[in-house]
């Protein structure tokens, strides 16, 4: 009997192991294989931090106004630090947020207001000096008072579209005294009780979690998307090896299981280097962000299938334009925010892109037109012929020719157009 029992136990473990393996493989295939359908309409907003702007030595009101009037931003997420809202215990200074809401109302823009202890930008948690020596319980009581005062003061503003309570409060990143999911739930419940007319956004890191916990707490799930960052552990820059569908499929799960939308509230549009941005040399900054590097990030974002993105880096774009005579990133972001079309380093005409994205067209071109060692340049869309054109660097060139791989949007086929001029020597 003992042998029979051991045999049955072994078979059971075998079946369980096989079942787990099937689930793991199926999950991996779901998250990493395939393509998401790009959204028909995408909202491109920007993030803004008053404190981060001042760290660049800039006038924050000037920058904020420029985002509204010059860049044309109609969707702004503003990061309000606890230390700015309550510099002295029990004394709230709301004039800065009042300026932002009134200017947004004037410009017809919508605001997401981030409030709490951890609101974004290093050191992530922005405690006023008077609160740093308090116990955790005392700090939490003060944070609830902060939320009550802020929401009560501004819930009548026409500019505020949503509240975001904390920023990645469940993700252990930053110089923060504690992390407490149960307290986050209390914060969200409080804000909803004070202002039931607006959704509350709860955010989580983009690359690791499935966002399910955030979905159980907030009305909208906010997440992040970074492509190339400095990893201190490896002492080098690394790009996340994740396909766009990874984000789209996780969002689809959240929608199916919890009925919640997922927004990307932090899309990389600035460098991420070894030190804080304003201390990083310009040549080092350009290793991870230029207009040329920004364009494929935007295309990657489109391919996730998400329909809302808030660009991260507006303060830096302004600093580069005003202090370093480099308007490249500001111009690229303006083109995106105003027309929904990223023009990279090229002049922006505002012409609409067809139903076949550059990302999809490039995959067709690479499968048809090039072989090992050959390469394609950035694509250009011809609205008249409804074709994508990719300049091609081929191993076998023809004299007097400048080849391009041309992808037909309707047929989704590709062929090489040699674009030859002058006398062409026939091939033998």
Structural commentary:
Helix 3 packs parallel to helix 5 (95-107), helix 6 runs parallel beside helix 7 and helix 12 (314-324) crosses helix 13. The N and C termini lie far apart (82 Å). A hairpin with a 4-residue loop joins strand 7 (228-231) and strand 8 (236-239). The strands form three sheets. This protein has an eight-stranded parallel β-barrel with strand order 1-2-3-4-5-6-9-10, surrounded by seven helices. By secondary structure, the chain is an alpha/beta fold. The chain is built from 14 helices and 15 strands. The chain has three domains: 1-33; 38-339, Glycosidases (TIM Barrel, Alpha-Beta Barrel); 358-417. The radius of gyration is 25 Å and the shape is globular. The protein has helices at 2-32, 50-55, 60-69, 82-85, 95-107, 136-154, 181-194, 212-217, 244-258, 282-285, 291-303, 314-324, 328-339, 358-369, and strands at residues 43-49, 75-79, 110-115, 160-165, 200-203, 220-225, 228-231, 236-239, 261-268, 308-312, 375-376, 380-382, 387-393, 404-408, 413-417.
SS element count, helices:
14
Main sheet strand line-up: 1-2-3-4-5-6-9-10
Give the amount of beta strand, in percent. 15-25%
Shape: globular
Unreliably modeled segments: 343-354
Along the chain, the helix and strand elements come as HEHHEHHEHEHEHEEEHEHHEHHHEEEEE
CATH class of the largest domain: Alpha Beta
CATH superfamily of the largest domain: Glycosidases
Question: Major sheet, described briefly?
Answer: 8 strands, parallel, barrel
Mean pLDDT: 90
**Which secondary-structure class do the elements indicate?**
alpha/beta
Radius of gyration: 25 Å
Distance between the termini: 82 Å
CATH third-level topology of the largest domain = TIM Barrel
Work out the number of β strands. Answer: 15
Helical fraction equals: 25-40%
Q: Structurally, how many domains make up the residues?
A: 3
CATH second-level architecture of the largest domain: Alpha-Beta Barrel
């Amino acid at each position: 009997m003992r042998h029979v029992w051991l045999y049955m136990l072994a078979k059971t473990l075998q079946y369980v192991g096989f079942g787990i393996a099937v689930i793991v493989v199926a999950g991996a295939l779901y998250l990493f294989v395939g393509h998401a359908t790009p959204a028909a309409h995408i909202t491109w907003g920007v993030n803004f931090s008053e404190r981060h702007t001042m760290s660049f030595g800039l006038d924050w009101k000037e920058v904020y106004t420029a985002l509204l009037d010059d860049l044309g931003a109609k969707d702004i997420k503003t990061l309000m630090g606890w230390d700015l809202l309550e510099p002295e215990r029990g004394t709230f200074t709301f004039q800065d947020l009042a300026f932002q809401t009134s200017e947004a109302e004037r410009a017809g823009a919508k605001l997401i207001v981030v409030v709490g202890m951890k609101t974004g930008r290093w050191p992530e948690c922005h405690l006023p000096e008077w609160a740093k020596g308090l116990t955790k319980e005392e700090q939490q009581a003060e944070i609830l008072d902060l939320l009550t005062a802020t929401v009560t003061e501004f819930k009548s503003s026409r500019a505020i579209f949503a509240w975001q309570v904390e920023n990645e409060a469940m993700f252990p990143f930053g110089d923060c005294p504690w992390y407490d999911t149960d307290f986050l739930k209390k914060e969200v419940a409080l804000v909803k009780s004070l202002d039931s007319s607006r959704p509350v956004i709860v955010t989580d890191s983009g690359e690791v979690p499935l966002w399910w916990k955030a979905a159980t707490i907030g009305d909208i799930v906010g997440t992040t998307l970074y492509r190339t960052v400095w990893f201190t552990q490896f002492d080098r820059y690394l790009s996340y090896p994740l396909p766009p569908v990874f984000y789209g499929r996780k969002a689809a799960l959240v929608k199916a299981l919890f009925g919640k939308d997922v927004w990307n509230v932090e899309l990389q549009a600035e460098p991420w280097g070894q030190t804080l941005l304003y201390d990083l040399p310009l040549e080092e900054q350009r290793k991870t962000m230029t207009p040329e590097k920004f364009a494929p990030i935007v295309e990657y974002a489109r391919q996730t299938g998400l329909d809302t993105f808030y660009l991260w880096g507006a303060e830096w774009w302004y600093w580069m334009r005003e202090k370093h005579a480099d308007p490249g990133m500001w111009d690229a972001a303006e083109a995106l925010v105003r027309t929904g079309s990223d023009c990279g380093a090229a002049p922006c005409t505002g012409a609409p892109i067809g139903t076949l994205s550059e990302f999809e067209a490039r995959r067709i071109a690479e499968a048809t037109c090039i072989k090992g060692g050959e390469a394609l340049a950035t694509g250009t869309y011809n609205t008249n012929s409804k074709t994508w054109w990719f300049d091609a660097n081929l191993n076998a060139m023809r004299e007097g020719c400048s080849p391009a791989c041309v992808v037909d949007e309707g047929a989704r086929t590709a062929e090489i157009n040699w674009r030859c001029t002058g006398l062409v020597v026939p091939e033998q």
